[in-house]
Structures are given as structure tokens and as C-alpha cells.
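Need residues for this backbone.
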């Protein structure tokens, strides 16, 4: 029997996953104050109030002000190295924070001159020096908040214009001097102040605030209690609770790690109680939390950046994500149900579960606020201001709750938590902006698509495989948002122009494959966070998550081949394709666990099981695959082949069940206590 480390508390888990240090008492108020100022600025800008026109009068001035406000905080919260996390803030970090504030303030003050006089191409000497300083400060901030991989990638690409004329042929472009590059990065609207930052300032801030307020006001506890009341008693109940609660919570918080630490600390111990192993429990939570970020109405920062790139309302992105997210959660649900049925894992006793009526009575307003947010997003299409209305309503209603009412302490903690989230994201987005800026400055963004098409020999399937692998590899080394932004500029045009694919499907494809790094070793951050909570081995948890979330590896190919799965098409066509995909996902997920509803165990005995599960797996893929187009078979032919695989598999499974020797019920593995 393998021993495992004891599960961690939420705070211990958070400390292991993040390197954020605790500020000394004299400045512990600073993050909350910064959040307050940022909220006032954002509200003044979005609602055009006119109280703070000194920093919101110009659009670019507001963007500069957001960076100038948040970036200095990075140097106070993130130490220069992990080893320095427990030490007090050193003098050089105070100095770097102050320099960052001064340099950022310089650009805020001269925002009008930058715009009116074209400083991005010809600036005074002082502005050039400030540009050099900001360039270096942003790269270091990105390193501290996002890690070495993103810092190295951003550094190399930000310097690319200097050597663009001497690099190999396919990526050769027009060169620029060091001074020209620095000016373009800091003072154009295509680099640091480009699409990523514009999406953050115009859309993301409100949703991040909503997610933090939701967590701090007891939303996580409400959703998990609601899930336990509804599903806790069924077979494998706590694992199904994890899907339901993490899906709902993740769809509003937009963060995989926060999701794991919010709902996982309750669902993982419950899964352990009914006999599920540590790594399996962690894998379930990691998959559920990852899927939550892909589920509307709030899908994390990347979805908002996607809306900006596609020049569509965010509601269009959210609507397109509905069916893929449903398919993913269905596949996860079927796998858990099959695992529980095969190993005879029951649910929790009803007497131990929370009352559905009492749960709704205490937290009904969370559902009401959720409904308001969805209505404003999808019906009114007011995505920029919707989260602020929802947050305001949540704060008001929360004060009437005896259980979740806030005091000054809770308010301070919420403001401080939001500031840390803002600072981390602004450092990464500002850094990634330079990556996009370098491609724009050299003109490579307009030609790299042709290079990808040339490398793939014009083959659309090969382009898709290249896109999937590139998205996954970049998702390992960078944040999902950073990987998406790079590929949206470099690879998406190749898939759209060279493959004639739907733009929304292509961008969603890149997003999904970038998200896979959260559950796929070697850098499965979501799985490793869940392993920390469960006290399991990280790599074992990552492998379990990879198996449980296996449907997500081919769902992106389905909606790229048939955009009806992302709501692009006639209602009848969308309905038919959806049902077809549902059948395929059920069969695929059942084959992964070796149990099919209505049939039972898929083969008794090693040989029978390999054959039957293989046939059901093939049948599932054939059912889900859309016929025609790039697929050389018609839909009727695919159905015929699917049935030709499924019918013998079912008959063989039944035959092996009847002729097998009586044996004890298979119990859950005991190697992972």
C-alpha cells in the first residue's frame, strides 16, 4: 500500500501553489486601496460619469493608468525568487515598485502627446528612456507573476524586430532599431496597450471583481451545498457534486486554480469517504474546475480577449461555448457514473446531506444574481457593465443574509484578493502585448499565416494537428491567455484562410487546446493543485485527470469540422449534430471506464474487455464525427460503420457476462489510499 501525504488545508494549498508573499502591516492596506481606485476609474470610464477625466479622458490614458496603478504592486507581492517568499519585502523591491509607478505615471501624464504627436514613431529623449525602463520592468513583472517560460518567450519576441532581417527565411521580416522598438512597444496601440490590455480594461475587470465577490460572499459554499442536496445520495454522488458545483462556480469565477481551492476542499474529502482514491478524487476536481472555465457565462480572461480579436460581442463567444462545454461535462459525468457502477460505489447517506429547501432558502439570491448576469449578457448584450450590476446586486442582497453578511474585515479581504488577481493578470497581459507588438511591427503577422500553410502543404487536417500541438505546447510554458493571444495572431489566420474554417471555431479550437495543459502532465497545474488538496501524488493525479477529461482532446476537432456544434447553422442542423455528438460522447466515455449503461461491464476477462472496449470506443468516435467535408465518408456511412462496431461489442459483452464465472464485485483500487 502506497502512503500519501495528508491533505492540505485551503490556505496551505494556496501557499504551495502561489508565490505571493504577505505584505508587512504598515502597507497591508495598499492592495485594497488600489482595487478601490481601480474600481472608481473603471466605473468612470465605462459609465462616462466624468468625475475622473484627468485619467479617463482619453481611452489610451485610461489604459496607461490601469497599468501604472497595478504593475507596481507586482514587485511588492511577488518576490524575486521562490526562496524569498517568506522574507520581508526587500529595499530593492520597494525601489522597483516606486520606479514602476513613476514611469507609468509619466505615460499617463503624456498620454495626449503620445497620441496627438505620434510618439510611437518619433518621441523626445525622455520618453525613449522611459520606454526602455518600462520595457524591462514589464518583462521582470511578467517573470515574477507568470514564471520564467513566459518571461523568456516575451523577451525573445520583444527583441525580434532588432534581428528580423537576419533570421531564417520563413520568419524574416523588416528590422527596426532599438529605439524604434522601445517606442513602438510602449507608445503604440498594437503592443503593450494592444488588444490584450484593452480587453482587460474594458471587459475583464468587472468579471474578475464579480468572481471574487461571489467567492467571498459564500457563493462557493452555496453551490456545493446545492450540488450535495441534489446529487450527493446517488452512486458516486460526491464526484458528481464536484462536476455540478465546480462547473457552476468556475463558470462565474473564471479561474481553474481558485475553483479547485474553493470547491475541491469540500468535494475531495467527500469523494474519499465513499471509497475513491486520492488521485482519482483530485483528477475529478481538476477536470471539473477546468471545464468550469470553458463554460458560459463567464469563461475567464481569454474569452474576452477572443471577443476583441473576432470583433464580436462577448455574448457570441459565450453562446458558441455552450454545446462544447455541455459535451465535455457529459463525458466527465458518464465516466464517473461508469466508474462508480463498475466498482459499486454508493453515494452519501441522505441524513448527512444538506436540505435542498434550506440551501435554497439561505442562498436563493446567488441564483437570482446569476440569472441577472446571463440576461444582461445574452439578451441585453451589455457585457462591459453587466458584471458591475450583478456585483452591486449581490452585495446588497448579501447584506440581508444572516449567514454571509459582510463586515469591514470581509470587505478588506475581498478588495485585497481582487488586487492580487488584477496585478498578476496585468503583468502577464502587458508582457504578452509586446509579443503581439513585435509581430505587428515587423509585418510578420501578415505573412506568418502563409508560412504555416506552406509548411502544412495546404493540408487542413495537418494544419489542425499543428495548431493543436502548438496550442498545447505553448499552454504548458505560458498562461492560457498568453498562448491564445500568440496563436490568434500567428496561427488562426492560417487555419481560417488556408483551411476555409469558421473563425469562431478556429479561435475556440485554440482556446480548448491551450486549456488542456491544466489537466495534462507534465505541467498539469489544475491537477497538481487538486493533488495538493487531496494529499495525492501530482503525476498520478495528472494522469487520472487526463483519462477522465479525455473527451476534451477531440471535442475541438468536432466543432471545427462542423461549426453547428458552436451554434453556427440552422436550428434543425444544430439539433441533429448535437444529438449525434451526445451519443458519441456517451459511448466514448463508457469505453474509457469499461461500463455502459443498459449493458453493464464491457467484457469480463482481459481479452474480451480489450476487444469490447475498443469496439465501443471506435463506435463512439464514428457516431460523434461529422460526415462530409474534410471527412471522406458521408454521415450515413459513418453511422453504418459505428453500428457495425457497436452491435457486436454489445453482444460480445453480454455473452462474456453470462459465461463468466461468478466473482466478487470489483472494488475500487487500494493502491492510492
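Answer:
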Amino acid at each position: 500500500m502506497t502512503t500519501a501525504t495528508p491533505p492540505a488545508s485551503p490556505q496551505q494549498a494556496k501557499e504551495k501553489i502561489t508565490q505571493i508573499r504577505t505584505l508587512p502591516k504598515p502597507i497591508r492596506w495598499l492592495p485594497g486601496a488600489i482595487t478601490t481606485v481601480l474600481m472608481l476609474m473603471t466605473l468612470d470610464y465605462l459609465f462616462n460619469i466624468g468625475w475622473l477625466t484627468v485619467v479617463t479622458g482619453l481611452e489610451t490614458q485610461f489604459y496607461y493608468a490601469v497599468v501604472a496603478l497595478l504593475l507596481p504592486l507586482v514587485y511588492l507581492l511577488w518576490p524575486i525568487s521562490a526562496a524569498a517568499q517568506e522574507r520581508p519585502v526587500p529595499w530593492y523591491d520597494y525601489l522597483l515598485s516606486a520606479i514602476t509607478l513613476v514611469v507609468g505615471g509619466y505615460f499617463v501624464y503624456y498620454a495626449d502627446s503620445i497620441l496627438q504627436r505620434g510618439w510611437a514613431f518619433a518621441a523626445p529623449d525622455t520618453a525613449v528612456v522611459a520606454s526602455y525602463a518600462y520595457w524591462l520592468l514589464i518583462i521582470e513583472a511578467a517573470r515574477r507573476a507568470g514564471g520564467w517560460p513566459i518571461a523568456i518567450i516575451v523577451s525573445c519576441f520583444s527583441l525580434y524586430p532588432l534581428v528580423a532581417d537576419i533570421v531564417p527565411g520563413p520568419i524574416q521580416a523588416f528590422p527596426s532599431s532599438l529605439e524604434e522598438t522601445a517606442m513602438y512597444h510602449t507608445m503604440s496601440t498594437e503592443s503593450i496597450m494592444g488588444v490584450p490590455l484593452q480587453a482587460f480594461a474594458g471587459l475583464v475587470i468587472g468579471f474578475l471583481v464579480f468572481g471574487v465577490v461571489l467567492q467571498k460572499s459564500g457563493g462557493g459554499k452555496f453551490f456545493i451545498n446545492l450540488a450535495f442536496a441534489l446529487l450527493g445520495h446517488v452512486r458516486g454522488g460526491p464526484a458528481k457534486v464536484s462536476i455540478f458545483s465546480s462547473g457552476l462556480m468556475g463558470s462565474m469565477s473564471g479561474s481553474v486554480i481558485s475553483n479547485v481551492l474553493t470547491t475541491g476542499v469540500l468535494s475531495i474529502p467527500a469523494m474519499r469517504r465513499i471509497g475513491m482514491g486520492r488521485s482519482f478524487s483530485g483528477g475529478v476536481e481538476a477536470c471539473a474546475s477546468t471545464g468550469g472555465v470553458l463554460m458560459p457565462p463567464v469563461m475567464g480572461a481569454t474569452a474576452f480577449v477572443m471577443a476583441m480579436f473576432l470583433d464580436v460581442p462577448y455574448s457570441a463567444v459565450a453562446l458558441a461555448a455552450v454545446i462544447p462545454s455541455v459535451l465535455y461535462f457529459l463525458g466527465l459525468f458518464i465516466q464517473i457514473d461508469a466508474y462508480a457502477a463498475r466498482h459499486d460505489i454508493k453515494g452519501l447517506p441522505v441524513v448527512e446531506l444538506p436540505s435542498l429547501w434550506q440551501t435554497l432558502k439561505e442562498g436563493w439570491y446567488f441564483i437570482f444574481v446569476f440569472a441577472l448576469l446571463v440576461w444582461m449578457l445574452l439578451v441585453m448584450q451589455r457585457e462591459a457593465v453587466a458584471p458591475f450590476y450583478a456585483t452591486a446586486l449581490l452585495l446588497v442582497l448579501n447584506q440581508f443574509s444572516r449567514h454571509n453578511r459582510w463586515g469591514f474585515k470581509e470587505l478588506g479581504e475581498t478588495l485585497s484578493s481582487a488586487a492580487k488577481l488584477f496585478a498578476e493578470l496585468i503583468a502577464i497581459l502587458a508582457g504578452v502585448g509586446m509579443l503581439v507588438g513585435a509581430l505587428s511591427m515587423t509585418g510578420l503577422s501578415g505573412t506568418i499565416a502563409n508560412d504555416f500553410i506552406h509548411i502544412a502543404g495546404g493540408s487542413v487536417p495537418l494544419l489542425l494537428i499543428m495548431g493543436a500541438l502548438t496550442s498545447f505546447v505553448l499552454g504548458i510554458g505560458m498562461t492560457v491567455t498568453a498562448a491564445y493571444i500568440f496563436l490568434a495572431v500567428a496561427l488562426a489566420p492560417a487555419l481560417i484562410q488556408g483551411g476555409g474554417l469558421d473563425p469562431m471555431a478556429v479561435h475556440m479550437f485554440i482556446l480548448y487546446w491551450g486549456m488542456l495543459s491544466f489537466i495534462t502532465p507534465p505541467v498539469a497545474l489544475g491537477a497538481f493543485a487538486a493533488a495538493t488538496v487531496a494529499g495525492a501524488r501530482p503525476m498520478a493525479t495528472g494522469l487520472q485527470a487526463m483519462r477522465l477529461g479525455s473527451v476534451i482532446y477531440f471535442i475541438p476537432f468536432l466543432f471545427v469540422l462542423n461549426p453547428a456544434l458552436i451554434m453556427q447553422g440552422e436550428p434543425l442542423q444544430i439539433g441533429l449534430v448535437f444529438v449525434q455528438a451526445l451519443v458519441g460522447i456517451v459511448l466514448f466515455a463508457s469505453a474509457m471506464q469499461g461500463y455502459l449503461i443498459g449493458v453493464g461491464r464491457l467484457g469480463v476477462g482481459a481479452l474480451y474487455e480489450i476487444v469490447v472496449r475498443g469496439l465501443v470506443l471506435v463506435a463512439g468516435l464514428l457516431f460523434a464525427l461529422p460526415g462530409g467535408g474534410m471527412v471522406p465518408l458521408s454521415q450515413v456511412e459513418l453511422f453504418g460503420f459505428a453500428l457495425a462496431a457497436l452491435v457486436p461489442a454489445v453482444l460480445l459483452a453480454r455473452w462474456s457476462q453470462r459465461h463468466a464465472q461468478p466473482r466478487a464485485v470489483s472494488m475500487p483500487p487500494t493502491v492510492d489510499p
